[in-house]
Design a protein that fits this description.
With about 475 residues, the protein is an alpha+beta fold. It is built from 19 helices and 13 strands. The protein has three domains: about 110 residues, no CATH class; about 100 residues, Phosphorylase Kinase, domain 1; about 220 residues, no CATH class. The strands form five sheets. The chain has a four-stranded antiparallel β-sheet. It has a three-stranded mixed β-sheet with strand order 6-10-9, with helices on one face. A two-stranded parallel ribbon has the order 1-2. A hairpin with a 3-residue loop joins strand 3 and strand 4. Helix 2 packs parallel to helix 8. The two termini are about 25 Å apart.
Length: about 475
């Protein structure tokens, strides 16, 4: 459940916590095919010229000097590419962000790092353009609302404005899709593939084509606000009786294909300094809630929110001086959803069970039946089993006497996330496992699950939480299957 294309811990934290914008504002969004084609063509041309200039100026350098120069040049070009993509917003930015998930399989490390830092919140769209977009969707109903002209959040496909329903005084938020981005998805995908081709950034392979098809499907789901509204309502119903969570209410009267109206939910970001002052027991409960929601999505409901961006979560807390104070995890976004079939879920449960038992042979057995794993040699499959054993370390039975975990699990069976350094160890282990030439691009489903796990692991580390293996595994693995009791 890990991959070697993951960014350094600090970069992941920065990327995940991208809910605020930098104060810049765009008067218009380039949404026509011609405008976007010209922008990407200009970027391609400039990159090509720079590559040619760098190659010529490096002719008389030594091998060592040329390597250093090329590395610095690549870093500079990667930053330029990310900046230019960020100006377009829309699906181009999303494509760049998701391409980073596969970075080490395709790209130079400098380009992967730049794409990971491709910030959703580079600029907001000017209010007159947003107001026109809302009016085109709501018509006269816009007059029912008192809408703040300043966004409280911006992203690549939409921005969010706070509002008040005048008749009732209810506080709501409007998620407003940027005009034209839904219609530009297919064109953007084609343009992005062309950009990669002319810059020789990645090899043009069947795997890349399949990946672009997957991204196309995901993006078309994400811009479908009616589907997002239904998903939000499903999660609201699922969690309505669980006081650990809050899911916004959908206000259907002001929701359309391109505008989503939700109840405003109070809370602070996961990285807020005040949360560090919460008693350990309360942080542990928040951490357990984060793990439980992820495992329910994957193993119970079969549908997962694939974007672990910290901006998609808030925490609502009572004062830190209350040992038994109530803390609530607020779930904000249900656009980037991915459904999983029963075969994949069965394999994933088997991997979790093998991890609980810390049994490598059981882990290899659990991998059977999935084409990606079945095609591996015994050596590569063994290496992947090691990756999964490490990825499931927090769910390992605390009764097993394993020296690799003993320092991280206390006498009460709690795993200490902040001390684990698990993210770095996973990167190193997965990187070694994927060095084989026969290793191919992992299935997209596993990449999404990997992303979700790493997001949750980072959440728990930042929160400095502890979780209890038995409290978690009992909910998702049948008791009669557990061997490491």
């Amino acid at each position: 459940m890990a991959n070697s294309s993951l960014p350094p811990q600090s970069d992941l934290n920065n990327r995940l916590d991208s809910s605020s914008n930098n104060g810049t504002e765009m008067e218009q969004l380039k949404t026509s095919r011609l405008d976007r084609r010209l922008s990407i063509a200009k970027t391609s041309l400039n990159l090509g010229r720079r590559w040619a200039g760098n190659s010529f100026s490096s002719l008389f350098l030594s091998k060592e000097e040329k390597a250093l120069r090329n590395q610095a040049f690549m870093k500079e070009q990667a930053a330029y590419l990310a900046d230019e993509l960020g100006k377009l917003k829309g699906s181009v930015v999303k494509i760049g962000q998701m391409l980073a998930l596969y970075g080490e399989h395709f790209l130079h490390p400098e380009i992967t790092a730049a794409l990971y830092r491709l910030n959703d919140s580079t600029a907001s769209l000017a209010w007159p353009v947003v107001e026109q977009a809302i009016r085109s969707q709501l018509g006269d109903r816009i007059n029912d609302l008192d809408i703040s002209t300043s966004p409280i959040g911006t992203a690549s496909l939409a921005q969010v404005h706070r509002a008040t329903i005048k008749a009732t005084g209810q506080q709501v938020v409007l998620k407003v899709q940027y005009p034209g981005v839904a219609d530009a998805i297919d064109s953007d995908l084609s343009l992005f593939k062309h950009l990669l081709k002319v810059t020789n950034a990645v090899p043009q392979t069947k795997a890349l084509d399949e990946w672009f098809n997957e991204i196309s499907d995901l993006l078309k789901v994400e811009v479908n606000y009616k589907a997002e509204a239904k998903t939000t309502m499903r999660f609201h119903e699922r969690l309505t009786d669980d006081e650990r969570y809050a899911v916004p209410e959908v206000i259907e009267a002001y929701s359309t294909d391109r505008v989503l109206c939700l109840s405003f939910e109070e809370g602070v970001p996961v990285t807020h300094a005040d949360l560090k002052a919460l008693p350990q027991q309360r942080r542990d409960k928040l951490g357990q809630a984060a793990i439980d929601i992820m495992l329910n999505e994957i193993f119970v409901w079969g549908e997962m929110q694939t974007d672990p961006n910290f901006g998609n979560y808030l925490i609502r807390s009572e004062p830190a001086d209350k040992p038994d104070g109530k803390d609530v995890l607020v779930l904000l976004d249900f656009g980037a959803m991915r459904q999983f079939d029963d075969d994949l879920l069965t394999i994933a449960r088997g991997l979790m069970l093998a991890g609980f038992n810390y049994d490598k042979q059981q882990m290899i057995q659990a991998m059977r039946g999935y084409p990606f794993f079945d095609a591996m040699s015994a050596e590569v499959k063994s290496n992947m089993a090691d990756v999964f054993l490490l990825a499931t370390e927090p769910f390992r039975s605390p009764k097993l006497q394993q020296t690799t975990v003993s320092d991280l699990v206390d006498a009460e069976g709690y795993y200490h996330w902040a001390d684990s350094n698990l993210h770095k160890r996973l990167m190193e282990t997965s990187g070694n496992a994927m060095q084989s030439r026969e290793f191919s691009l992992p299935p997209k489903e596993f990449m999404f699950i990997s992303r979700k796990f790493i997001g949750a692991y980072t959440f728990l580390t930042v929160l400095n939480a502890r979780t209890n293996t038995f409290d978690t595994i009992n909910q998702f693995v049948p008791l009669d299957q557990r061997e490491g009791r």
